[in-house]
Amino acid sequence: MAKKRKKRPVPRWKRWLRWFALAVFVFVAGSVLLVLPLRWFNPVTTAFMLQDDSGREPLLHEWTAWDELGSSMALAAVASEDQRFADHFGIDLTAIQKSLGEKDQRGYVRGASTISQQTVKNLYLWPGRNFIRKGLEAWLTVVLEVCLPKQRILEIYLNIAEFGPGVYGAGAASRYYFGVPPEGLSDRQAALLAGVLPSPRKLRPNDPSDYLRKRSDWIVTQMQRLRREAWLTRIASTDLMPSRL
Hints:
Number of helices: 13
Structural class: mainly alpha
Strand order of the largest sheet: 1-3-2
Largest sheet: 3 strands, mixed
Number of domains: 1
Distance between the termini: 65 Å
Strand content: under 5%
CATH class: Mainly Alpha
Number of strands: 3
Helix content: 55-70%
Shape: elongated
């Protein structure tokens, strides 16, 4: 009888390579499964809401569908936070380069986060600037842009952004500060709301500081330009997959 050949042991580097490939697959698949359902389902809460320490109980938050948000609030947010939103793929390299170029004048790096990045941060992450958080933010931002159309990303952002201590989403903010639904906001009111987004714990849209008044003036001007350019039409979803069930 012929002797059975003994199986050669698998080299350690091959075993490590297999485990690494499996880990990468699980990470990528997990990221997609985390984000893709947002095409059809609205998030019930966010990481930032769960970490909220404003002392407001319960938090003010209500979901407002895209058709009920109104054009003023959408244009104001884009004008204030990310005017290249329709043109970049989640990470705005042009804005980052410009920010780094201004470092010598300002003495610090100005924030260049896109609306997509802010959406990811609010949904899944935590405050801070460490490399792990920024790396996860960048990766999940790319996944978000692949899985969701631009209009859906903006809709989610407007519904989860913090507009004041314990006040989340344009629906709750418009009613709390101005007593109207989002679609009833004037350009000025929408600009005041969008103007607080960088510092929602410090600025008050219903009691604006001189800084916020000047910022809202600038936002209104940018909104008028975006409206003339029919900006909202550019981000209307054109993909074949339904964005709602």
